[in-house]
Amino acid sequence: MTVILDKQMSEKTQVLEVPAPDLIDREFIHEVFSHDEFGELRTFVPLTNHQLIFQLEALGFETGRQFSKGKNRFQRLRLDRFEYIAFLARKKMAEHGLQAPWEFIFDSAKQRAGLCNYTDHQISLSKYLVQYHSLDQSEQVILHEVAHALAGKDAGHGPNWKQIAKSIGYRGEKFTGKEIAEQTAKWIGECKNGHRHYRYKSPRSQLACGYCGKGFNRRYLISWTERAA
pLDDT tens digits for 39-86? Predict the structure, then answer.
């Protein structure tokens, strides 16, 4: 397939123009968004090809403006990384019986990846997770939270939750938040041996590097610098 890359876009928002929309399927989309440099897919379809437009909409594409070329009329369609992950999340929720009032949303959390809100019946995913982690990691967090919804509030991370999580494809990987902190934390610290540390608020007391030694040791004090705005 021939593709055209929009070089004017930043690294995180590069657009992949696909001139052969009939070759777009779920596998193709997944492959594109597995590469961090692509933030959006765009294509266009003859307005008379209602079936293909419907197929792309079913994959999460949104319709845009129409345009004419010669005697033909075309429909623009686009799909960005966030829209696709929201599409996957709603699909997984539906597959496992999470119907209304359950819904999926993005949130602005930086120190956790996802959340199952039993009160508001919401599965949420950090927008920073989506921005700085792989597509596979986002999918795993979705499955983690779906398992919480299915297991119930009192299950915690106990045997019932683990059994359900494993049965729906969750691999039990631990989220550290390091990638998000590297990009968004306001304070960046470094010890004399070059180990990096991150804080979202200004440290109120002296801290020592845990990589260099256990407990507090003044030999391994961390020097903090505020990230430039």
Answer: 899 999 999 999 999 999 988 899 999 999 999 999 999 998 898 999
Q: How many other CB atoms are there within 10 angstroms of residue 106's CB atom?
A: 16
pLDDT band, residue 176 (cuts 50/70/90): low
User: Which residue type sits at 61?
Assistant: F
**Locus of tokens 């003044």:** 218
Q: Is 218 helix (H, G, I), strand (E, B) or coil?
A: helix
Residue 115: which domain range? 96-167
- Residue 74 sits at the vertex; the CA angle it makes with 72 and 75, to the nearest 5 degrees, is 165
Together in a domain, 61 and 129: no
DSSP of 27-88? HHHHHHHTSTTEEEEEEEEETT-HHHHHHHHHTT-EEEEEEEETTEEEEEEEEEHHHHHHHH
Considering the domain architecture, whether residues 136 and 103 belong to the same structural domain is answered as yes
